[in-house]
Structures are given as C-alpha cells and as structure tokens.
Amino acid sequence: MGRYLLERAAQALVVLLVVSTLTFVMVTLAPGGPEIMMTMESTPDQREALARQLGLDQPLFVRYVKWMASAVRADFGRSFGDRRKVNEVIRERLPNTLLLGGTALILSLLVGIPAGIISATRRYSSTDHVVTFFSFIGLSIPAFWVAILLILLFTVRLSWLPASGMATPGTSFLLTDRISHLVLPAIVLATTTLPNLSRFMRSALIEEIGQDYVRTARAKGLPGRQVLSRHAIRNALIPVVTLLGIIVPRLVGGAVITETIFSWPGMGQLAVAATIGRDFPLIMGLTVVVAIVVIVSNLLVDLAYGWLDPRITYT
Amino acid sequence: MTGGGAQSIDIPSATRAAIVPPPPRTLWTIAARRLRRNAPALLAIGFLVIVHLFAVLGPWLLPWDPFAADPLTRLTGSSAAHPLGTDEIGRDVAARLILGSRVSLGVGLVAMIISVSVGVAVGALAGYFGRRTEAVLMRFTEAMLALPTLFVILAALAVFGGGPTTSTIVIGLTAWMPVARVVRGEYLRWRVTEFVDAARVIGSSDLRIMLRHILPQVSPSIIVAATLNVAFAILTESAISYLGLGIRPPLPTWGNMLQNAQIYIWSAPSLAVYPGAMILLTVLAYNFVGDGLRDALDPRLKI
After folding, report:
1. For residue range B212-238, what is the model confidence (pLDDT) as tens digits?
2. Is the peptide bond before B250 cis (omega within 30 degrees of 0)?
3. B245 touches chain A (CB under 8 A)
4. pLDDT range class, residue B6, cuts 50, 70, 90
5. pLDDT of the residue at A166
6. How far apart, in whole angstroms, are the C-alpha atoms of residue B209 and residue B212?
7. pLDDT grade for A237, boundaries at 50, 70 and 90
8. Euclidean distance between CA atoms B213 and B257, whole angstroms
9. What is the pLDDT of residues A138-187, one digit of tens each?
10. Which of A15, A250, A275 shows the shortest C-beta gap to B158?
C-alpha cells in the first residue's frame, strides 16, 4: 500500500512536470509574447527596460529553471494586467470555484445516481427510455445555451432568480442571497456531468444485477428491494467512484463557461479574462493550479477505490 | 462453380439449401442490418445528411447575403424578406445560420481528422511496440487526459490567437487521448494473433503489419470514436467562439452567433434560440449515430 502510494505520487509529480513544461514552452514560443503590451511608439530603451523588468532578456533555459523554482513554491510571478501576485489572485478565486463546482457535483450525484438506478432496474421500460433520451440531450446541449435559456426563463420571464454575480450588489452577506445566486450556475454546471453519471451508473448496475451473487441472494429468498440496496447498488457504486476522475476535470472546464456567463468571480472567469488580456503568468499559474486540483482528486479517487473494494490489492 | 452443379445430384432439399452458400456475412453487412433496425440512429443520419447538404450548397442556393448589414431593419422578427428575422445589425439570420453551419461543421470534421490521426498513431505505436514506447506514450496520454481541456485550449488561444485555423488545430490536439487509449487496447489484442505472426514470418515490415493487417481490425472502434469526436469538436468550437476567443464575427459560427444573444435577450429572444437549437440537434445526431454504430459494430453483441 505504502509503495503504491509512493508510486502514484511520483506519477502525479511527473504529470505535473509535463504540464508545467508544456505551459512554459507554449507561452515562450508565442509569436508576439508579452512584449505585445508595448505600443509602437515605445523607444528601444523602453522596450529593453520592460523586457528586463519582466525577465525576458535572459536565456530560455534560465527562465525555465527560474519559473520552475518559483512554481514549486507556488509563486507564479505577477500578473501582467494589474501587477498583483498571481497566487494571491488565485487564492481569492479558488474558493468561489470550489463552491460552485462542489454544489454542481453534489447536485449531479443526487440526480444522476437515482436516475441511473431507476434506468437499470427497469431496463428497456419507458422510464429507462426517457432517462436515456434526456442523458443524450444533456451530453449534446451546449452549457452556455442552457444558461441562456434558463436566464431567459427564470430571470427575464419570471424574475425569480438573479443571473449574475455572487451577491446582490450593495448588500452584506446573506446566506439566502448567496444560495439564490448559486442556483442557476450550479444547475448549468451540473448538466455537463449529470448524463455521464446516470449512464455510467446504469451500466454498472446492470452488470452487477447479472452477477451470480445477486442470483444467490434472490434464490435464498431475499426481497428484490433488499437485494438491490444491500448488494447490487453498493457494488455498482464502486466503479462510479472512478468516474469522478473524469468528472472533476470536466467540472473545472465547465466552470470556464458557467462563470463567464453568470459573472461568477472564480478561476474560470479569470482564465477567460487572462486569455483576452494575454496575461501569461496568470494563465500559466491557473493551468498549473487547476492541474494540481485534478491530479490530487484523481489520486484520492484511486485510493478510495481500493478502500471501497477489498477485492483490489495494491502490489 | 455455382449451385447448379449441386442440383444435378439427387439430394434432399434440406441438404441442398446448406450447399448453396448464403451471401457472405461480413462485419459490415451485419452492422448495416443492425443499424437499419435502430430508428433513432437512422433519423439522426437523415438529419445529418440534410444539414451537411445545406452547409455545402446552401450559401449558393439561397438569395440572402450573410454579411449585408442594414441598420434600418435590425432585430425584426420573421418576415417574407427575412424568414428567421435579422440580427442586431440587420443581417439575415437564416443566411448566417447556413454559412455558420459550414464553419461549425467544417471545424468539427477537420478537428476530428486531426484528433483521430494523432490518437491512432499514438495508440498504434504504444500498443504494437509495447515496452518503453508504450510506457512513455501512455504516460504522456494520461498527463494530457488529466488536464482540464478548456483551460489548455484557452492557454493555447491566448498564445496563438483565435481564428478558424488555430481553433481547429487546438481542438483537434486536445481530443485525441480517448482515441489513443482505445486503439492501444486493440493493438495489444491483435498483435499476438496468428495472422500477425504469419505476416511477420513472410517478412512484412512492422509498418506494413500495423497498417495493412491490424488497422482494418481496429477500424470499427476508430469509426465510432471519430463520430463521437465530431460531436465533441462542434460543442467545443461553439463554446470558445461563444466566449469570443475562437472564431470571431463577421464570419458566423453557431457559437459566436449566440455571443450577443444575452444582450438582446429582452428584445429578441428568438436570436438565442436558432443557433443553439442547431448545435443541440447536430451534436445530438452525431452522438446518436456514434452510439448506434457502437451497438451495430460491437463484436461482443454478435449472435
């Protein structure tokens, strides 16, 4: 177990190294890098001064080592935009994204797992067909369009829910206010992960129901409901845990669109702003931080998998 | 020799029927028969044919100019002159929708070709050669898979700028990993078969074995993955163009047509409906076809 942990941690580090190197190379090779901020009228002296200030006058290798050395200490330099420290900006935004992503995850688990169970236990019934059809719609609908339609209905037509920001401007923090701002973005974000969950749960449960131990449980006279809840569903949930490894990166990616539409001050919205402003330190820092979140969650999923399923041993 | 020769001998009719060979049942004819029984997939194929025909021919057949702005007739509802109305600067929505389909579908298809080519190359090399090659390639694939795609795409767009070419390449290069994994598994399976041993014995090169002998066995999985990848690419393009970072106006795509929909949501809600519905229906159709193909081609379901 200990060795497995070490191995996985080493793997995660390699992945992280690849990610940060890729990001660095991409940004360094960019045509018209950060110098693009300078205007046509800048004198050569001014250009040189800015390049020196940003450390762009040093050789590539030196810049890479420097960047890595500070990245290890979670220091990604200063944003080109407002000259604030990148890790400060990210620390400010990360909790907001986690709040939105966490809510969306819980929402899609609460809806997706029961939907998958109903679908699997009534396979090929009309309920199953309806669930499958909506799963396909969910897989195919652009998240931003869902957002537009929901805003159209709940904000424009019914004016029930706010469609922008985390709080009503000019008011102090109120839990109900925060929740009402959270509802629409969380629903939109959940639609991007819900269909995967319900479809995966369906096929996992169908596979479990076909197993011998389920037949044994039925044969010894256990009521069908108990066979399901005590045996089949428990085992079917184990592979679903692995799906979280796919769902977490998707939530993070979905946050880009959702946060932008709903002006939710998180990392996704920040990434869009950084892309528009060609703010390279910021976008590099964001990509690395997001990769860390994803890699750590993958690691946790792997460990949870072994803990949940005693048939799996680490060698 | 045909069944005629068999007829001259006096044998019971039941045996005779067995002598006359039925038409060959290849994977493809079986798949075609299965697909014909799948109503949603057939409907989806029909829809896709129409949409692609419109995308190719539409801009030539229809009289409206997708770029001609007319401030006097902005945000009109549907009328005889403009069947789907006009947008915020008076351009014809129907014409832009059709030209947009050309852009969106084009990006989807080319990005799919890129992602499938890279995925097949990586997967085939890893699965066929194994050992070091496999370890390096698959670790790299896993690293790419661990990245949140949209963040990588944004970083790449920040660096290389938007536009149709960059967007297509970036989308293609962030979608090959699942293909590589599937193809690797298949090559692992096929490289130890007897026909591959036989090919090696008669002196076929590795490249020839990979392309001429194993690739045809893998093609069903590749076709399914390709179909689903088109759906993914169209969705991604629409998202980045909606954010204003992919393909920018005046060139219309279904995604960037929705860019201003939120602003005019009060005055012209229909502007938000048409492009979104086109994305949904097209992506849905590709997903249905991909799913139908998977069911039709999956050898595990063979009876």
Report:
1. 999 988 888 898 899 999 999 999 999
2. yes
3. yes
4. very low
5. 78
6. 6
7. confident
8. 46
9. 989 998 899 888 888 888 778 888 877 777 777 777 788 888 889 999 99
10. A275
User: Chain B neighbours among A 83-142 (CB < 8 Å)?
Assistant: 136-137, 139-142
Alpha-carbon torsion (A128, A131, A134, A139), positive or negative: negative
Min Cα distance B233 → chain A (Å) is: 11
Q: What is the pLDDT of residues B61-81, one digit of tens each?
A: 777 777 776 766 666 666 766
Query: What's the first-to-final CA gap in chain B, in angstroms?
Result: 30
B185 touches chain A (CB under 8 A): no
Rg over alpha carbons for chain A, rounded to the nearest Å, is 24
pLDDT band at B189 (very low <50, low <70, confident <90, very high): confident
Give the chain B residue whose CA is nearest to the CA of A244.
Answer: B146
Tokens of A292: 């860390």
Mean pLDDT value across residues A42-69? 72
Are A34 and A80 spatial neighbours (Cβ–Cβ below 8 Å)? yes
A interface test, pick of B51, B154, B286 with most A CB neighbours within 10 Å: B154
CA of B281 vs chain A CAs: smallest distance (Å): 8
Joined tokens for residue A286: 């964001």
- CB contacts of A141 in chain B (<8 Å) are 279-280, 283
Per CB-CB distance under 8 Å, the chain A contacts of B228 are none
Minimal C-alpha gap between A145 and chain B (Å): 6
Q: Give the CA distances from residue A295 to residues A118, B13, B143, B154, in Å, rounded to whole numbers and listed in that order.
A: 32, 68, 9, 19
Asked if A20 has any chain B CB less than 8 Å from its own CB, the reply is no
Using a CB–CB cutoff of 8 Å, tell me whether A254 touches chain B: yes
Cα(B289)–Cα(B49) distance, integer angstroms: 12
Chain A contact present for B287, CB below 8 A: yes
Nearest chain A Cα distance for residue B270, angstroms: 11
Here the tokens at position B260 are 């201003």
Q: Which is it for the CA torsion B151, B221, B255, A102, positive or negative?
A: negative
Instruction: Flag if A14 and B143 touch (Cβ within 8 Å).
Output: yes
Contact assessment for residue A57 and residue A49, using Cβ atoms and an 8 Å cutoff: no
Rounded Cα distance between A217 and A224, Å, is 9
The helix-helix angle for A86-121 and A175-191 (nearest 10°) equals 60
Cα separation, A168 vs B22, whole angstroms: 73
pTM: 0.83
Task: Give the Cα separation of B41 and B287 in Å (integer).
Answer: 9
